[in-house]
Amino acid sequence: METALKETKNANLTILSHPLIKHNLTVMRDKTTTTEVFNLALKRITYALFYESTKFLPTEDIKVETPIKKTTSKIISKNIDIIVAPILRAGLVFSDIAQELLPFAHIHHLGMYRNEKTLEPIWYYNKMKGKFKNPENTYVFILDPMLATGNSGYDAVHNFVKQGIKEENIVFMSLISAPEGIERLSKAYGKIRIVTAQLDETLNEKGYIVPGLGDAGDRIFNTL
Ligand code: URA
């Protein structure tokens, strides 16, 4: 694990460290946790992930009148576009909270599943809302609870970079990451930001994160 990360030259990796996050993650790891409790714990962590992921969004000043006096206060800049891109299906779990916190964002679903033999992603859905009008000022949040091999993550980032979105305006947000996935993304796209709640040990031969929490989609949607 250490070797993989030592080789990674990514100053833009944030691993959240907070007792409540670690506590809820432990609840999620436990194989006896029900879907209901699993999703509740995930929701609690998701807020923290979003606040961290969005902290570099540009702001602008506007005038506002409080019950006490007129003042100047900040809002998210009106000159930017925000894309939230959940990788189906597990990434959907982050979408509700994304819409709550970023109600002006465009939701762009990325449908991919993993070829179990090659571990390469196979695309089945990618409905772009035309070309980006303002790629220089577009901010993208790619959502996937598990950053494992990084293969689907790579495809997702590539999907936006090839449309002219700046790497530094892309955040890959995950709950648990494997060193292999972080390395894959960082080597290909050294300027993107990666925000995760946990860095785990490695991947097993099936591409699952160890110790991880199993198949995130199955645990979220109760399809075990
Ligand atoms: N996807 C999952 O759902 N779990 C893993 O451990 C890796 C990829």
Number of distinct beta strands: 13
**Major β-sheet, in short?**
9 strands, mixed
The total count of helices amounts to 7
- Broad structural category: alpha/beta
Task: Please give the share of residues in helix.
Answer: 25-40%
Bound molecules: uracil
Element order: H for helix, E for strand: HEHHEEEHEEEEEHEHEEEH
**Principal-axes shape call:** globular
How confident overall, as mean pLDDT?
A: 92
Low-pLDDT windows of residues: none
Estimate what percentage of residues fall within beta strands.
25-35%
The value of Rg in angstroms is: 18 Å
**Span from first to last CA?**
29 Å
Please render the helix and strand layout as text.
Elements: H1 2-6, E1 13-15, H2 19-29, H3 35-53, E2 59-65, E3 70-76, E4 81-88, H4 95-101, E5 106-107, E6 110-114, E7 121-126, E8 138-143, E9 146-147, H5 151-161, E10 170-177, H6 179-188, E11 193-199, E12 202-203, E13 209-210, H7 216-221
Parallel strand pairs: 1-11, 4-5, 4-6, 4-8, 8-10, 9-10, 10-11
Antiparallel strand pairs: 2-3, 6-7, 12-13
Helix pairs in contact: 2-3, 5-6
The protein binds uracil (URA).
